[in-house]
Design a protein that fits this description.
The complex is a heterodimer of chains A (about 160) and B (about 750). Chain A has about 160 residues and is of the alpha+beta class. Chain A has five helices and five strands. In chain A, the strands form two sheets. In chain A, strands 4-3-5 form a three-stranded antiparallel beta sheet, with helices on one face. The chains are: A alpha+beta (about 160), B alpha+beta (about 750).
């Protein structure tokens, strides 16, 4: 067991954990933040996606000892009371069915939009290829990502949660 | 009369002023007069607070099929409530109030539509009664809409203002309730966003796996890779010394856990023998699994082998025979008539897994009673039939049902897997042993190895086409699986499949081979594979007859008729013909100019009271890589409740059907399941998603459900399209094994 100080969603947390414990389980079992989900444990399904230094990472295979920067989880995506454009678009397009994969889907999409404000269908397919949806909400995921992107490309200056 | 109604409707005022309406309905009965579910009363709560907030309780478990939104929509519509004023709360699990709270079989809408309308209409009548009193006007001059009761003069009162007086109104007789004219619907039939979307999008949904109970331990459970093996010993000292591990022990198998009052599931969800590891976090107990060295007694273990099953099935097919389901007396003559063209085809479909996105898990807190008090149990889980999670506690430990509390959480996928409670029997047993609350989580590998699989099977099909290009004989030999002579769930023909009911000259026989591997209900059981065989074979026959497939299929339907008049679960060939024609019209069938290597494929299926036709447009390249560009779906499930929810169920079924047919297969070798995780049990990714065009015929029939019926026609629509594009006939799934790769 070692002590780690993690920045998660802008807050500092001290945890005692085995160096090999994946970030996923530190977040879920030690920090009690359950928005990030367990689906496969081998980085094949994307349900565990978080941002480290803004980059999308599969937290189920990222040992806590290797976490090198601030972590953002789904709970930290919205800016206080303002929803992220993806979250607004997700509701507008009625995307979720069971909802279990959706945290990971949104986190992967958020990372995409942070670096590409006008993704094509092919860009979306590539960025989201690691996020499996068992219920098959892919049609609406694509539509929601396009809608969220359009927020950034509106003529008026970009506003979150518009 | 008044007393009887009081029994049916319980009304009380809620603290702070307001109306709480509890509706009791008699048991919902099946067509043969027997109760569809083992329920007492069906109670639904509507609460109207003085500030106007309307709370509607959603009784049925939510697994993504949208019932938490759809059922309250019906109540709100009949009440005259504005949807924006409604807050939906998931009802607690309480059979004394809600009866059997279950989700499955695409039954929630058909079973509850009328009850929900009565609920809403009752509330409306009481609100109108209150307004009549307070405004001193005639009832017939009042109308409920927009969360208000409005008089013809324009005067109005809000539901909030009326609630306290409404609670004192006489209870309406459910038999004389009038319902809104569907043409005036403002909620039903529209697209309503799921009530939990905000919670889901912000990561705040609580699934079973997210439960946290004070003092809770974490557990993993390891079972014999060969189903039925029993743990004899293991490296206990080494495991208990691992960091984070507090305990490790063997559990003996216990068949009592599988006893169920629900006949469909009785005997299935048994407790398997294995090794439990308990610790203070999930990762520690998952890690410990990898270090377990267990000695198993494998003498009772399964020896199932998929290659053996294939070999045996081919021998059975060659021999023929089997239990006669339909005699088809003219079939042999037609098959041997030299003027007829005969086609014989052997079809094969694999076992597949459920792979719910959320692996199986359950949190249990078994408390031994102190000084003569009875033991109690509390359970938290995602389940399609949460009340039934009590049965393991009753049957294994002699608990009284009233001393067991079940908390039903939202499910990260059900698909039939969460109808069985083997995993909660494990959690309950572990908690009983350690005397603490414990969360048992399955790894993905546990989840695949210990699934109740969609059963595989084989069908040997033979048919004759006469000189006029018409079907002269149909001979279907279903080769499936059973346990101790009884078909496993999803295997065998039930007798209401299309061939059996529509074709005059059909012979249908069935042979069952023994299987040990656990099988259970998987989205559209039986239909999800028989549709592939039947609808592909019909295309083969249309080709043999050199006729247009759509025309040939419609001709097979015969005259427009119900097979069982007035029975919601009966095929209606008129509705079948209508959805086929609509799919034809909307897809460009016969009209669209298609490039070389692209084809359209048609399929129809009837199941779960729904008539669905699908046409897939598929492109195939020289290396047999195929892309499904578009699927046109025509559906008749009667009136649609939530248009957005209905469309998403169709989209989801198409993706599920495609993912499964394209690349999924479970195989056994000496009783062991050979697939472990998404690395060797692949799943479809977003890039392969086709355009999906959904068209509803909102026929004048009782509304029925959409969780399952859009899945079965997808596979044959795709393989028929591949044939149209390439001339290559595929008679097995997954297509990856037939040499075709989905891109």
């Amino acid at each position: 067991m070692s002590k780690y100080t993690l920045q998660v969603n802008g807050e500092s947390h001290e945890v005692d954990a085995d160096p090999q414990m994946p970030l996923l389980w530190v977040i879920r079992d030690k920090l009690k933040m359950t928005g990030t989900k367990f689906g496969c444990g081998i980085a094949q399904c994307g349900a565990c996606t978080v941002h480290v230094n803004g980059a999308p990472m599969r937290s189920c295979v990222l040992p806590v000892s290797a976490v090198s920067g601030p972590v953002t989880t789904i709970e930290g995506l919205s800016n206080g009371n303002e929803l992220h454009p993806l979250q607004t678009a997700w509701i507008e397009h009625d995307v979720p069915q069971c909802g279990y994969c959706q945290s990971g889907q949104i986190m992967s999409a958020a990372a995409l939009l942070a670096s590409n404000k006008k993704p094509s269908d092919s860009d979306i397919d590539q960025a989201m290829a690691g996020n499996f949806c068992r219920c098959g909400t892919y049609v609406r995921i694509r539509a929601a990502v396009h809608t969220a992107a359009s927020f950034y490309n509106a003529d008026t200056s970009a506003k979150k949660g518009a | 009369m008044e007393l009887n109604r009081r029994k049916l409707f319980k009304v009380s005022a809620i603290a702070g002023g307001g109306l709480m309406l509890q509706l009791s309905m008699p048991n919902v009965l099946a067509e043969d007069g027997k109760p569809l579910v083992a329920s007492k009363d069906l109670n639904f709560y509507v609460q109207i607070a003085s500030d106007g907030q309307i709370t509607i309780f959603a009784p049925n478990p939510e697994m993504g099929q949208g019932v938490k939104t759809a059922l309250p929509m019906i109540i709100a519509e009949e009440m005259g409530a504005k949807w924006e004023d409604v807050v939906v709360v998931q009802a607690p699990i309480d059979s004394s109030k809600f009866g059997m709270q279950g989700s499955g079989g695409s039954m929630t809408i058909p079973r509850n539509f009328d009850a929900m309308r009565k609920m809403g209409a009752s509330a409306r009548e009481m609100l109108i009664g209150a307004a009549s009193l307070l405004l001193e006007v005639e009832r017939k001059e009042l109308e409920a809409r927009e969360s208000q009761v409005i008089h013809t003069s324009g005067r109005s009162m809000t539901f909030g203002q009326l609630a306290t007086v409404a609670a004192q109104q006489p209870v309406p007789d459910p038999e004389v309730l009038e319902f809104k004219d569907p043409r005036s619907y403002t909620i039903i039939g529209t697209s309503v966003a799921g009530v939990d979307n905000l919670v889901v999008a912000t990561g705040l949904t609580e699934f079973g796996i997210d439960v946290d109970v004070p003092g809770m331990m974490y557990a993993s459970y390891t079972r014999c890779p060969r189903r039925g093996g029993i743990a004899k010993s293991f490296n206990e000292r080494e495991i208990k010394r691992l960091p984070g591990v507090t305990d490790a022990f063997i559990l003996e198998p216990d068949d009592r856990a599988g006893k169920s009052s629900f006949a469909f599931m009785d005997g299935l969800g048994v407790l398997r023998g294995g090794v439990a590891v308990v610790g203070d976090n999930t990762w520690a107990v998952f890690n410990a699994k990898n270090k377990l060295k267990i000695k198993w007694d494998e003498s009772p273990a399964s020896q199932d082998s998929w290659p053996e099953m294939v070999k045996q099935a081919k021998q059975v097919a060659a021999k023929g025979g089997g239990e006669v389901k339909l005699p088809g007396k003219t079939v042999d003559a037609a098959l041997s008539d030299s003027k007829n063209r005969v086609q014989e085809s052997f079809y094969e479909f694999p076992y597949v897994a459920h792979i719910c996105m959320e692996p199986m898990n359950c949190t249990a807190d078994y408390k031994k009673g102190k000084s003569g008090e009875p033991d109690t149990l509390e359970v938290w889980l995602g389940s399609q039939f949460p009340e039934l999670a009590k049965e393991a506690g009753v049957n294994m430990f002699g608990l009284k049902p009233e001393n067991i509390k079940v908390n039903g959480l939202r499910m990260g996928g059900g698909f039939g897997r969460r109808a069985l409670h083997d995993f909660s029997a494990e959690a309950i047993s572990i908690s009983h042993r350690i005397g603490k609350p414990v969360k048992l989580t399955w790894t993905r590998t546990d989840d695949i190895h210990n699934d109740f699989f969609r059963v595989g099977g084989f069908e040997n099909m033979k048919a004759a086409i006469d000189s006029n290009g018409k079907l002269a004989a149909w001979d279907q030999h279903y080769i499936g699986f059973g346990n101790k002579g009884k078909p496993v769930i999803g295997s065998g023909l039930r007798g209401n499949e299309f061939s059996m009911v529509a074709l005059d000259n059909a012979r249908v026989t069935q042979t069952l081979m023994e299987v040990d591997t656990s099988c259970g209900a998987w989205r559209a059981p039986g239909s999800n594979t028989n549709a592939f065989v039947e609808q592909s074979f019909i295309h083969e026959l249309a080709e043999l007859a050199e006729r247009d497939h759509a025309e040939f299929l419609i001709e097979l339907m015969g005259s427009r008729r119900w097979f069982e008049e007035g029975k919601i679960s009966s095929l209606n060939t008129g509705r079948a013909i209508d959805v086929i024609k609509l799919a034809v019209e909307k897809s460009g069938w016969g009209k669209k100019k298609l490039p070389k290597g692209t084809g359209l494929g048609l399929a129809f299926y009837f199941c779960h009271a729904a008539h669905v036709a699908e046409i897939a447009e598929v492109s195939v390249d020289a290396n047999n890589n195929y892309r499904v560009k578009n699927v046109t779906v025509a559906v008749d499930v009667g009136p649609i409740v939530n248009m957005s929810g209905a469309i998403s169920q169709v989209q989801g079924s198409i993706v599920d059907g495609l993912s499964t047919m394209a690349m999924q297969k479970i195989t056994m070798k000496n009783g062991e399941i050979e697939q472990d995780n998404f690395n060797n049990y692949p799943v479809m990714r977003i890039a392969s998603t086709p355009q999906i065009d959904v068209h509803f015929i909102q026929s004048d029939n009782q509304p029925t459900g959409l969780g399952e019926p859009a899945l079965p026609p997808l596979a044959p629509a795709v393989t028929n399209a591949i044939f149209a594009a390439t001339g290559k006939r595929i008679r097995s799934m997954p297509l990856s094994e037939a040499g075709f790769t989905l891109v």
